[in-house]
Design goal:
- Helix content is 70%, strand content 6%.
- The chain is mainly α.
- It has 18 helices and 7 strands.
- It is globular and about 70 Å long.
- A hairpin with a 4-residue loop joins strand 5 (132-133) and strand 6.
- Strands 1-2-3 form a 3-stranded antiparallel beta sheet. It has a two-stranded antiparallel sheet with strand order 4-7.
Length: 440
């Protein structure tokens, strides 16, 4: 009977795996490595996708009144535009694993940039002529007008966001040294909330078409940058490109670093994981994953149903409906959001995942209650001079507590729960993870 054992030898973490003949193989997980310029550039280029995703999520908040006025849309039309991001994310979450594995990490990031580029252009040039680029065809005679162009662009951005949430996390996990992987993974959350804050602030002083065009800039920088970063060594091993994966790993670790042990570990670990299970989505629903799946779905549902989407999509309208300045409220929200996301990098290892989740969940509850009381007081004409400030306090509390816990910790816990079953040798998230997040 095969048995996996974690042990420590000479201050090095090893995974002993028994094969069919009873022979034990030891895989090293020490993985201390220095930060190289290639690694820094690769991380910088890859985290531009979460930045664009943050811009996409927050875009609908500061531009709502402008778009409704310019395009003569109803509230229902604009609500569909806001929801189209989630609909596109659902479809993207179904395909993200297969697309990332088939085309590779770099090519998938390039596809994300193309989809995002077309999505932003579709929004920016609504009620105008648009060259609609799909995955494989060009339809030069298609004219998209009004809400249809907005919705199609938003759908494409949602699809790209789902691909980004999976492909970028996988790429960073696979190229990062083990001793730096946790901090580098959390950079995706930092850049995500940086994108949200950027759009909330810039959207106050720019028109909606220009704001959409500005969203193209990071896409173009990333698209050009992917030609200068190495492909994931693990993906190259999976597809049998032995020499390429060694060269890729050498570039990431430095020319003078001995990578023979890490290269051997990567190959052995992938072979071990492939022997444990297949990569089918059906495997996610096997009984032995019930606990991990319940935890992952529960945390993701709590974050989704806790008001995060509504506040992020329509923050400016919430302030204006409560009788507070939409401009001041939106800027305050942006300023409150970014510092906690950076602080979470340091607090996570100090206090652990659960305390941050509990703190964040409590903060989001207080924020929703504060917003509810604000509109309740306004509806009944009570404390009219003070009710708008309750809305500001509620959104500010949400902005300060959501990024530090519910905004990023669930993704890390889901990834760690998978490692608890497969062992620490394989950092790639479970194929159903992005599906679950997109579905919720």
């Amino acid at each position: 009977m095969e048995e996996d054992i974690l042990c420590k030898q000479d201050n090095e973490l090893l995974l002993k795996t028994g094969d069919a003949h009873g022979v034990q193989l030891c895989h090293s997980f020490n993985g201390d490595a220095k930060i190289t310029s290639v690694l820094i550039i690769s991380i910088f280029i890859s985290v531009l996708s979460p930045f664009v995703a943050g811009c996409t999520v927050a875009y609908s908040s500061p531009v709502q009144s402008q778009i409704i006025s310019d395009l003569s849309l109803s509230t229902a039309d604009y609500s569909l535009f806001g929801s189209a991001l989630s609909i596109g994310g659902l479809f993207g979450s179904i395909l993200c694993g297969k697309v990332t594995d088939y085309f590779g990490r770099r090519a998938t990031i390039g596809l994300i940039d193309v989809l995002s580029l077309v999505g932003w252009l579709s929004i920016a040039y609504s009620q105008g002529y648009l060259l609609c680029v799909t995955f494989f065809t060009i339809l030069p005679d298609l004219i998209l007008k009004g809400a249809w162009s907005l919705d199609i662009g938003r759908l494409m951005l949602g699809f790209a966001n789902s691909l980004s949430g999976y492909a970028v996390s996988v790429y960073i996990a696979e190229i990062s040294p083990k001793n730096l992987r946790g901090g580098l993974m959390f950079l995706t959350q930092v850049t995500y909330f940086s994108g949200i804050a950027t759009v909330l602030v810039v959207g106050v002083v720019t028109r909606w078409r220009l704001l959409a065009l500005l969203g193209i800039l990071p896409c173009m920088i990333q698209f050009l940058g992917i030609f200068f970063i190495p492909e994931s060594p693990r993906w190259l091993v999976i597809y049998g490109r032995g020499e390429d994966y060694v060269n890729s790993l050498q570039r990431l670790r430095g020319k003078t670093v001995d990578i023979s042990q890490e290269a051997a570990d990567i190959r052995d670990n992938i072979e071990h994981v492939e022997n444990i299970e297949g990569s089918s989505l059906v495997n996610v629903f096997r009984p032995k994953y019930a606990y991990a799946l319940t935890v992952g779905l529960g945390l993701t549902a709590l974050a989704s149903f806790g008001g995060a989407t509504g506040i992020l999509y329509y923050a400016t309208t919430i302030f204006e409906s409560a009788g507070f300045s939409g401009t001041i409220g939106t800027i305050a929200m942006a300023l409150f959001q970014l510092p906690p996301s950076v602080l979470g990098v340091f607090l996570m290892d100090k206090f652990g995942r659960l305390p941050l989740l509990m703190f964040s969940a409590c903060g989001m509850s207080v924020a929703c209650l504060s917003l509810a009381f604000s509109f309740l007081l306004k509806e009944h004409g009570w404390l009219i001079d003070y009710s708008p400030y309750l809305a500001l306090i509620g959104v500010s509390i949400f902005s300060a507590t959501y990024p530090i816990g519910m905004g990023g910790v669930p993704s890390i816990i889901i990834s760690e729960a998978r490692r608890a079953y497969l062992g620490p040798c394989h950092p790639v998230p479970v194929p159903g993870r992005a599906f679950a997040r997109g579905f919720l």
